[in-house]
Amino acid sequence: MSKRQKLIEIKNLKKYFHIDRHRILKAVDDVSFDIFKGETLGLVGESGCGKTTLGRTLTIIYGKTGGEIFYGDKNVNDINSKEFAKKVQMIFQDPQASLNPRMTVGDIIAEGLDIHKLYKNKEERNKKVFTLLEKVGLHREHASRFPHEFSGGQRQRIGIARALAISPEFIVCDEPISALDVSIQAQVVNLLKKLQKEGGLTYLFISHDLRMVRYISDRIAVMYLGDLVELAESEEFYNNPLHPYTKALLSTVPEPD
User: Fold this and answer.
1) CA 167, 108, 80, 193 torsion: positive or negative?
2) Tell me, what DSSP letter sits at residue 253?
């Protein structure tokens, strides 16, 4: 990757939660890093280390406590939130919880199209929904069904189609495979890789599955108790980990014999 173009720059980002009057949880504490256009940055660490909070603060689902987020050359504070949502989307961990059970799959996928008025008429709207369904390996007749009629893997594909609907540049994948059967996980990761290649997408891939992170990521960042403790190219990360916590994490990955 020579002369990489910076898509996102995070400077001293903080996100704190007040537990009660006297206690503060520093979920993300003074974190800085860049994400380059077209890459997948893997973000790893054990549960509770702040990975998801970082992803949600980055997509402005959570307001930040301090620090700066730049998208391209603009501070996110200076970008209209509707315009920002068009560029940045999120794929959630639990496809069952993140899909409205009362809406048909077609309406779920078209939600972004409706908000941003990205079609001229109902016919064009339907056409876009059918195209998105086929893009993620589902069928157009699935549009009239409801989320409970699908398997976990299919529901995650619906979540991916919804994220893609408004043609974002950057997608935060928040543990997108952890709620799925092992047999389905590789299919979903392969789909994400294929979509990235086709659409020039940039991903932040949050996971605690180090094998999958190695498979999909160009670079890998490690979080520990709200801090970013290591960031390296994928192969370098696995072959020459520097931080003691990274070494401990890697030692738990089962080696095939």
Assistant:
1) negative
2) S
Q: What is the 3-state secondary structure (H, E, C) of 73-86?
A: CEEHHHCCHHHHHH
Q: What is the pTM of this model?
A: 0.93
CA torsion angle 231 66 57 36 (round to 10): -40
- ∠42-51-197 over CA atoms, to 5°? 30
Q: How confident is the model over 101-128, as pLDDT tens digits?
A: 999 999 999 999 999 999 999 999 999 9
Query: What CA–CA distance (Å, rounded) separates 51 from 63?
Result: 15
Residues 6+ apart with CB under 8 A from 144: 104, 105, 106
**DSSP letter, residue 63:** P
Tokens read off for 144: 């009239």
Helix (H) or strand (E) holding 132: helix 122-135
Torsion of CA 215, 218, 223, 229, to 10 degrees: 130
> What's the mean pLDDT in 162-191?
95
Question: Mean pLDDT, to the nearest integer, of 147-171?
Answer: 96
